[in-house]
Design a protein that fits this description.
Arc Repressor Mutant, subunit A, 9% strand, 3-stranded antiparallel β-sheet, 3 strands
Length: 187
């Protein structure tokens, strides 16, 4: 989805695409050329992207990749998918990065799914915490567990705020009860 999403706006060559995917995924997840180029070849073979040549400032010919009509349709389908894969650990960040290409209902569903998954994880961690301490009770283990729980709590809070914001944006503000509508005030 990341490659299709980045190519949605403009054609890119491999080096620039790798740089943008790495920027999108964050510093902790670097995309290697050994992963990127087989992915690009697969997308070309499936007809989702096209490869063309261009001469850069260095006068070296570079392959530039662009989205095909089928690629645009596939990206649109991925951007509007609100199933469990959209909110799992491996896919949520990429899906979130392209939320601008999905509707409010999809965004809320993905955010709610992610929050639900994290709340389950939080409950499991809190339940397991006393049991884990029995086997290994040193200050570093406790600190690592505390850090993990606090990180998940922060993400749950962030997701809740995003959900509230999405809902506020997607539903028109209702007038308080008893407030006349414009039709009622017109003579």
């Amino acid at each position: 989805m990341a490659v299709l999403g980045l190519l949605h706006d403009t054609p890119l060559h491999g080096y620039e695409l790798r740089k943008q995917v790495t920027g999108l995924l964050g510093w902790g997840r670097v995309l290697s050329y050994g992963t990127l180029y087989p992915c690009l070849k697969s997308l070309v073979r499936r007809g989702l992207i096209a490869a063309g040549s261009c001469t850069a400032e260095t006068r070296r010919t570079r392959i530039t990749y662009s989205l095909t009509t089928d690629g645009r349709a596939r990206f649109a389908a991925l951007a509007t998918d609100a199933g469990p894969m959209a909110w799992d650990d491996d896919n949520f960040g990429v899906h979130f990065a392209f939320f601008a290409h999905s509707d409010a209902r999809t965004r809320v569903r993905v955010l709610e799914g992610r929050r639900s998954r994290l709340e389950e994880r939080l409950d499991q961690a809190r339940t397991a915490l006393p049991r884990t301490r029995g086997g290994r009770d040193d200050p570093y283990t406790r600190e690592l567990q505390r850090h993990g729980i606090e990180s998940v709590e922060r993400e749950v809070t962030w997701l809740t705020e995003l959900i509230e914001t999405e809902r506020a944006r997607s539903t028109p503000l209702e007038a308080p009860a008893g407030t006349p509508t414009p039709k009622e005030t017109t003579p």
